[in-house]
Structure formats: structure tokens, C-alpha cells
């Protein structure tokens, strides 16, 4: 038997709760699959949408949500994995079309697993989760396009969220002067503790602005989209790079081509869900090198599986700072 968050949707409506399921309810282990015991999971924006039924994330019902998991291999039908291996899973459509990791057991595709770096515990890996892995993908994109701390400031939007918090901590450690944008003025001390040199009100970026504005940013990590992303591009310095990875403000981009053709700004799209395995492995190795685990601990709000639904609602209401780690075992 194992405990799992169980989502159902039928003629009676949407229901979510923790259920105890028999092991034979797990998907059958096919060639290439791995059965793991999940020690920790986490809540990302996509998990929040699924658990609150606020977005069409789940495509097959009933569903065990949870796009992230960390734990130990129990059984493997994949050549790369054996019993006892310590692994991380991020994305790949689990919690959508395939059962996810907000449970004590999960059957996952072996090709999607990454070996847990020795620098991290399973709990710390889930404090990072897809949010932190996405943050590091943004950092790597900024580096790949040639931006460096000597070029000026980096802007991080949605800075108190999971992506923003980890991006801020990593960029600061790499020597950048980081400016954090947030709508939570009361969290300024938290952002400063992660390495922010300056905290600005998100309202300064959230409304419609001119196609070209005063140049300020050498690089940007944007988690919001919409007008915030448009303004960030309009304020980016000549040759700068904007890594776009989120849509919390909106999916639209009410901008113009001006920053890209007059200032040579690069807009780098960041996808974490289907990123190839070699990029995932490189990203996790950089996280192990460049993320201060003491700062990571300051971001963590650990909850049991039974509290995940309530905390998902808080996440969608903008009441969460940092990272929610879900302890799956009773």
C-alpha cells in the first residue's frame, strides 16, 4: 500500500485528496521504466494549477499529480538504473498524462531520470525542483549569449517565487549585481539575504510602456511575461539577453521588434519540461557547484502530503515565498 494525492474529475465534479492505494494500482512497469520510492516532491506552478483545478494541466483522469520527485530506485527495467540508485525527476509530462510524484511510489521513464548529485539530499533536490532547474537554465542561457557580471546589472522578476529565489541566489554568487522585482515589499529583507543588491516594486514594470526605454539591464530572468517582459526587453542594454521562462502575469507579449533590431537584444526562451537529458545533467551539475545550500535552506517550507492541497491554493494566490517541499512519507 502507498499514499498518494489523488485527483478525480467526472460528472460529480473535481475532487482532490490523499488516498491509500494498493501497489497493484501503480502503472505496470514496462521496458525502460523504473519504480522509485519517492522521498520528497514539491509544488510548482503547474502542480498548483492541477491541484486547484484552475488550469487544463491534467489530460488523463484519475491522476496522481506532481511533476517533480526525488528518491531511490526500487526496481528497474532500464539499463542505466539499478535498485538503490538515487535519482531526480523533473517534468516530462508526468502529473499530466502519466502519474506523477506526489505519492510514496512512482513508475517513471528511466530516460527521464537524473542521478542525484552528491552535493544534495533528496529534500534539497526538491527544494530546487523544476523551479530551480529552470532558474539555472536561465543562467546558462545568459552565459551562452555572452552576458557577464562586468556588463552591468541583471534583473530578476517574480523574485520571491521559486524560480526567482534560486536565480537570485545563483546570479549573486556568480558575481552579478542583482536587482529583484517583487510585489511583496515586506519580503525585501528575504531578497537581500539571498543576494539582491536592490529591490524594486513590480508595478514599475507591470504596465504598458514605450517600445524603447532607458537602457539598464545587461541580462534579465523573467518569470512573468506580458507587460513585464515587454518592459524588461525595452530596458535591456545593447547586446543584452533576456531569458523568458514564465507567464504568471500573462502569455501575451505586448512589445515591438525595436529592442531586438535596434539594440541587438536576445530573447531566449527557456523550456524545462522537454529539455534533453544531457542539458538536464549539465544543469544539475552547475546547481551543485553554484547554489549555496545554506541559502537554499532559507527558502524551504516543508509540509506533509496531507497539506499539499492547501499550500497549492496558497501558491496560486501568491502567498508563497521560496519553495514548498512536500514530504511524501507518512
Which helices and strands appear, and what pairs or packs with what?
Elements: E1 2-10, E2 13-21, E3 33-42, H1 45-52, E4 68-76, E5 86-90, E6 105-109, E7 113-115, H2 122-144, E8 153-156, H3 162-173, E9 177-182, H4 188-194, E10 198-201, H5 203-206, E11 217-222, H6 226-235, E12 236-244, H7 258-262, E13 266-269, H8 277-290, H9 293-298, E14 300-304, H10 308-316, E15 323-327
Parallel strand pairs: 8-9, 8-11, 9-10, 11-12, 12-13, 14-15
Antiparallel strand pairs: 1-2, 3-4, 3-6, 3-15, 4-5, 5-7
Helix pairs in contact: 1-10, 2-3, 2-8
Can you give a write-up of this model?
The protein has 330 residues and is of the alpha/beta class. The protein folds into 2 domains: 2-116 and 299-327, Quinone Oxidoreductase, Chain A, domain 1; 130-269, Rossmann fold (3-Layer(aba) Sandwich), CATH 3.40.50.720. It is 30% helix and 28% strand. It is built from 10 helices and 15 strands. It has helices spanning 45-52, 122-144, 162-173, 188-194, 203-206, 226-235, 258-262, 277-290, 293-298, 308-316, and strands at residues 2-10, 13-21, 33-42, 68-76, 86-90, 105-109, 113-115, 153-156, 177-182, 198-201, 217-222, 236-244, 266-269, 300-304, 323-327. Helix 4 links the parallel strand 9 (177-182) and strand 10. Helix 1 crosses helix 10 (308-316). The longest helix is centred in the middle third of the chain and has 23 residues, at 122-144.
Amino acid at each position: 500500500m502507498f499514499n498518494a494525492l489523488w485527483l478525480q474529475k467526472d460528472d460529480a465534479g473535481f475532487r482532490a485528496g490523499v488516498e491509500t492505494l494498493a501497489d497493484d494500482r501503480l502503472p505496470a512497469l514496462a521496458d525502460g521504466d523504473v519504480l522509485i520510492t519517492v522521498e520528497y516532491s514539491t509544488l510548482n506552478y503547474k502542480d498548483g494549477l492541477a491541484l486547484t483545478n484552475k488550469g487544463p494541466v491534467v489530460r488523463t483522469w484519475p491522476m496522481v499529480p506532481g511533476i517533480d520527485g526525488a528518491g531511490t530506485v526500487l526496481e528497474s527495467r532500464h539499463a542505466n538504473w539499478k535498485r538503490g540508485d538515487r535519482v531526480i525527476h523533473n517534468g516530462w509530462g508526468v502529473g499530466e498524462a502519466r502519474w506523477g510524484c506526489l505519492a510514496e511510489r512512482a513508475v517513471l521513464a528511466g530516460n527521464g531520470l537524473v542521478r542525484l548529485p552528491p552535493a544534495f539530499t533528496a529534500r534539497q533536490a526538491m527544494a530546487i525542483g523544476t523551479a530551480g532547474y529552470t532558474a539555472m537554465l536561465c543562467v546558462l542561457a545568459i552565459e551562452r549569449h555572452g552576458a557577464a557580471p562586468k556588463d552591468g546589472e541583471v534583473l530578476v522578476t517574480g523574485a520571491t517565487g521559486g524560480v526567482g529565489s534560486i536565480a537570485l541566489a545563483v546570479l549573486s554568487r556568480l558575481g552579478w549585481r542583482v536587482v529583484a522585482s517583487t510585489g511583496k515589499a515586506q519580503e525585501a529583507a528575504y531578497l537581500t539575504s539571498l543576494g539582491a543588491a536592490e529591490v524594486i516594486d513590480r508595478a514599475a514594470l507591470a504596465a504598458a510602456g514605450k517600445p524603447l526605454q532607458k537602457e539598464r539591464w545587461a541580462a534579465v530572468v523573467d518569470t512573468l511575461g506580458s507587460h513585464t517582459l515587454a518592459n524588461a526587453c525595452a530596458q535591456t542594454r545593447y547586446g543584452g539577453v533576456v531569458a523568458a521562462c514564465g507567464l504568471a502575469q500573462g502569455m501575451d507579449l505586448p512589445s515591438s521588434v525595436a529592442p531586438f533590431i535596434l539594440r541587438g537584444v536576445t530573447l531566449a526562451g527557456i523550456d524545462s519540461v522537454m529539455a534533453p537529458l544531457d542539458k538536464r545533467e549539465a544543469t544539475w551539475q552547475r546547481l551543485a557547484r553554484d547554489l549555496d545550500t545554506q541559502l537554499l535552506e532559507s527558502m524551504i517550507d516543508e509540509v506533509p502530503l496531507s497539506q499539499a492541497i492547501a499550500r497549492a491554493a496558497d501558491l496560486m494566490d501568491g502567498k508563497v515565498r521560496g519553495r514548498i517541499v512536500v514530504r511524501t512519507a507518512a
